[in-house]
Design a protein that fits this description.
The protein is mainly α and 519 residues long. It is 60% helix and 4% strand. It is built from 22 helices and four strands. The chain has a four-stranded mixed β-sheet. A hairpin with a 3-residue loop joins strand 3 and strand 4. Helix 14 packs antiparallel against helix 15. The protein is globular, with a radius of gyration of 25 Å.
């Protein structure tokens, strides 16, 4: 492979790194819970607990501790815990960035040998913001890497550029995949797309290989603590999903609610290009139309439209698809003069993309307070306050802060459990519709819930933008039975006025006048 291709790929990867660099907001993310999962799985004896409980029940909750739960990302928890133990928060940030840029680089190296750089460079530049949509550290990063590896191996094999033996790496990857992230179901689906393509092209040798691989990859999905249940879980997870999560909503739905995200525009432009590119290739170069690549890209287009959490995967898939269709359309442009014109056009288009991107994504560059790696400054100061003052539960904590709660307060010594956390599938959907939301909206429901669980403290992620959360905060600033004792840019803590909390309240109670509220 030419050194120039590798250098350009690395340069583009560096630009992607800039877009992915975002400091961790631990009170609003899942990563703390993932780390704790890994710690308990590796040190179950220290916690004097069974791994089975963590794998099969809502282990961290005191409200629904026996509710059955498929801990489908348990393997990622071990990876996250080991990375955090060895390299800290900065290491976790860098590891996630490296995984996503590796996926991007694999796709770029897949297309570069057969796609003119004057087409692949502007396409890559335009897609980088879409690929960088998911900046929060999540187990799905591993899925992006596995998708890239699957596509690379299957495409190279289909083009007779890779020996058949490499295909059988995919079932082994599937075993790791099913134990780290729910996207593992895409492994067999990707293989299936190449099987269909081989059948359409009447290539019986490759069709047989793909059929065998498909069976092995599907069988690999059974190799987890959950067997068939784990393999089918992606199709059932939303059957019990009682909380509206923005990342699971469609683009039109979020736009109607007033959500602003420049990647909605990027999605529309790139999808339009993909549609017109497909039409032109079907008209002018039908025999070389990338059937498998088209079907996989189409699947992720639909997924990302109806659930924006799939935007990064869609952006990655668009890279080889748009580059392939562009190269097929430019196939006849072989004269030296034609290439010079193409390079000039590419330079102008690339410059326009850079300017256009800079305008729409100006908050993704150095200089923004959230840009960088590691934790946001003072992000978990509230944890220190709780531990130093000896505040104890039962806590009422809101949905967002659940990951931080589990990470910081569920220790071998204390094992403080959470009221709720950001795993809707781990709680009965009625818990959200009949308890969690109403108790924040209605004082009578709050009183009944308080009587049931006897909350001693409230630890709340105060940037929770839901209407019920904001109403709850206003109500409790005004509530004489609860004393605000701590607040920072991320969280607020209230203590119940009782004898046990009297000394802490006397020392730390915050004046009501410091809060901007509506009476």
């Amino acid at each position: 492979m030419k050194k120039s291709i590798i250098c350009i790929g690395l340069l583009l990867s560096g630009i992607l790194c800039i877009f992915l660099a975002k400091k961790i907001n631990l009170p609003a993310t899942d990563i703390g819970r993932h780390i704790k999962n890994g710690e308990i799985l590796l040190h179950a004896n220290t916690y004097n607990t069974s791994r089975s409980a963590l794998l099969h029940t809502n282990f961290f909750s005191y409200t629904n501790p026996d509710f059955p739960f498929v801990n489908h990302h348990w393997g990622y928890g071990i990876i996250a815990y080991l990375t955090y133990t060895l390299f800290g928060w900065t290491g976790l940030s860098l590891a996630y960035i490296c995984v996503l840029t590796s996926a991007f680089l694999i796709f770029f190296l897949l297309i570069a040998p057969k796609t003119p750089l004057y087409t692949s460079i502007p396409i890559s530049l335009f897609l980088i913001p879409l690929i960088a949509e998911r900046t929060e550290i999540r187990p799905e990063g591993i899925s992006y890497l596995f998708i890239a590896i699957f596509l690379y191996i299957l495409t190279k094999y289909s083009h007779d550029e890779l020996e058949k033996k490499y295909i059988y790496i995919l079932p082994l990857l599937s075993v790791v995949w099913i134990n780290t992230h729910i996207y593992a179901i895409f492994g067999p689906l990707i293989v299936g797309a190449f099987l269909v393509e081989a059948l359409i092209r009447r290539d019986t040798t490759k069709a047989y290989t793909h059929l065998t691989t498909l069976g092995l990859c599907a069988g690999a999905l059974l190799i987890s603590p959950y067997g068939l249940e784990g393999a089918l879980y992606p199709f059932k997870i939303f059957n019990n999903y009682g909380y509206l999560v923005s990342e699971n909503q469609s683009i039109p739905f979020l736009e109607r609610l007033g959500f602003t995200n420049p990647n909605f525009l990027w999605w529309k432009i790139s999808s339009t290009l993909a549609i017109f590119g497909s039409i032109f290739v079907l008209i002018y170069n039908r025999k070389k139309f990338p059937i498998a690549l088209w079907s996989i890209t189409l699947a992720f287009a639909g997924l990302s439209f109806f659930s924006i959490r799939h935007m990064t995967a869609y952006g990655l898939m668009l890279l080889p698809f748009l580059a392939t269709t562009a190269s097929l359309l430019c196939e006849k442009n072989t004269t030296e003069h034609g290439k010079q014109n193409a390079w000039a056009t590419s330079a102008i288009v690339s410059l326009c993309i850079i300017i256009f991107t800079g305008i729409h994504f100006n908050n993704r560059f150095p200089g923004n307070p959230s840009w960088g790696v590691g934790l946001l400054p003072h992000n978990i100061d509230s944890v220190s306050f709780i531990k130093e003052t000896g505040i104890h539960g039962p806590f009422f904590s809101n949905y967002d802060i659940g990951g931080l709660f589990i990470f910081s307060l569920f220790t071998p010594e204390k094992k403080e459990k959470v009221f709720v956390d950001n795993r809707p599938e781990a709680y009965p959907k009625e818990f959200f519709s009949d308890v969690y939301v109403p108790m924040q909206e209605n004082t009578d429901t709050w009183a009944r819930t308080l009587n049931q669980y006897n909350f001693n403290a409230i630890w709340f992620y105060r940037l929770d933008a839901t209407s019920w959360a904001q109403q709850f905060l206003v109500t409790h600033i005004n509530d004489p039975l609860w004393a605000p004792v701590y607040v920072d840019d991320f969280t607020i803590i209230f203590l119940k006025r009782n004898e046990k909390n009297a000394d802490i309240i006397k020392k730390y109670e915050l004046p009501r006048s410091m809060f901007s509220i509506t009476s």
